[in-house]
Structures are given as structure tokens and as C-alpha cells.
Amino acid sequence: MSNRRVKLSYCADIVNILNKQRFDRKHCDFVMEVNGEFIYAHKAILSAASPYFEAIFEHDVKENVEGKVQFTDAEADDLKTIIDYIYGGKIKIDEDTVQSFLFISGLLQIDCIKEQCRVNKLFQYLENCALIKGNEFLTLSFKEVKTIIEDGDLYVEFEEKAYESVFKWVKHDPAARQKLLQELMSHVLLLIDGSTDVTDNACKVYDVSSNKVFDIPLMAETREELSTVSLNGLVYAIGGSDRSTAECYERIKQHWSHIATMRVHRYDHGVCAYNGHIYVIDGCGDEALEEYNPITN
């Protein structure tokens, strides 16, 4: 039997060499441009870590042919940190970077970073949850209250307490705070999907006049990271992870109905209603703009 010796650090040494080549721009065959800055890398490394890059390199798309891709919605330093992670396996996530890292890792489909970001967001949620339950919440400034309330990742139990807490905060100093109520309530999620104690197609509605939250019928499909918009008395639930479908809710009929399907899956996308039409913008899945006409469907 032959005597074999294995160098335990062999893999790490290879990665370190590739990383040094990246910084020296040696043998790099792909460039990422962000706000006028250029980040050089190797296609083989990027495709191994990111399904987003793998899909680009497997097809004769413009980015693959030119060996270059441009990112318009990311910060250069944050994308550099993500690429550093791809080469080195280490990343530091804090409250200042978690939202940006969550967006970039979602775009590049790097699940391990997304999971770390969600854990970080959970700790932020627990801190906010403890804060909102105490009397200290009543003494916070408008800016501090707004920062807590507009957090889109709050769980349903905290959302329902948020409605009550906003009114308590206003009543603590009504003369100065009454005028701020409308803006605060605009940041509170009125249609809640993905309840932690039911299903991912469960919804709740907040009645401003009675200051109560109540259930409405389930959506036809489960949806995570969807977007919602209201138009002509109807509520529209659009997209979500692995979803190109959309549906609308009629309050009088108390029923969800499917509408025309988008041409691609979208999540974390923007949506707005303007001049009788609904516009879906950007998001993870596609950067193109889609327009929906509710009259012609």
C-alpha cells in the first residue's frame, strides 16, 4: 500500500491564490460595474456560488458575451463584500448593512447569506418587540417610532400590537402628535400575509374606524415576499417567491379572484396604481416594468 500524505489546507490555499489573482486582475474573465466602480472576478468561482451568475454563463446573453454586468440598485462596497464572501466564506452583517446584503444575496440567489440576514433581522425584531411593549415606546421621537413601524419584516403578532401602540403613542401627547398619525399609519402594513400561526395565504385587515384587526378569506395561493396595492376598491396581491400570478380581493363578495399572470416570477418588487392601471416594477426576478389594465385584464 502506498503512503499518501494529504495537505489539509490544500483547498484553502487554492482559494487564497484565486483571491489574490482577483485583486491582481490576473486571469479574471468577468467584470461587475457598480456606480462607476469595477469589480473583477472569475466566472468559474461566481457560477459555483451563485445560480444567478450560473444562468448568465450558460447562455449567450449580452452579459456573458461581453464578460460584464452592470448593477444599478446596489452599493459598490456592499457588492464587494458579497464577492469577498464568495471567495473567502466570511462576512460581517450588522444593522447598517443587513438590508443591502439581503437585497444583493436575493438577487444573486446566495441562500446562505440570505439566511444570515434573516437571522440578523430576527434579532432586530426581538429588540423592537421588547421596546414596543414597554412604556419607553411612548417617549420615543417620531423618527424612532417610524423606523420601528415601517420595518417590513415584523411578524403578525407585532403588527397587531403596532396598531395599538401607534394610537397610544399619539394619545400620550395628542396636541403635538395628532398630525403625525396619518403618516405613521401609512407605514403600518394593512394587509398582512404569511401569518406565523396559520398559513402563508392568510390575510388580516385593519379597520381604522374601530381600531380592530380581523381575518378575511384566504388567498387562492400561498405567497411570500409579495407586493400589494389598492385600486378602485379592490386589493391586489401580486407575485411572491416562485410566483408570477396575481389575484384581487373584492370586499363585498369577500372573495379572491385570479387576474392576468405576469410574464416572469417576481418578489420584493415595487407596485403602484396610477391613472386606473397597476404598474409592477423591478424586484428579484426581472428589472422590466409591467403594466396591468383591470378593465381588459
TrEMBL record:
Transmembrane segments: none annotated. SMART domains: BACK (SM00875), BTB (SM00225), Kelch (SM00612). Keywords: Actin-binding, Kelch repeat, Repeat. Gene3D superfamilies: Kelch-type beta propeller, Potassium Channel Kv1.1, Chain A. Residues 28-95 form the BTB domain. PROSITE patterns: BTB. The keyword Repeat applies. It comes from the Eukaryota. SUPFAM superfamilies: Kelch motif (SSF117281), POZ domain (SSF54695). GO terms for molecular function: actin binding. PANTHER family: KELCH PROTEIN, KELCH-LIKE PROTEIN 17. This is BTB domain-containing protein. It comes from Glossina brevipalpis.
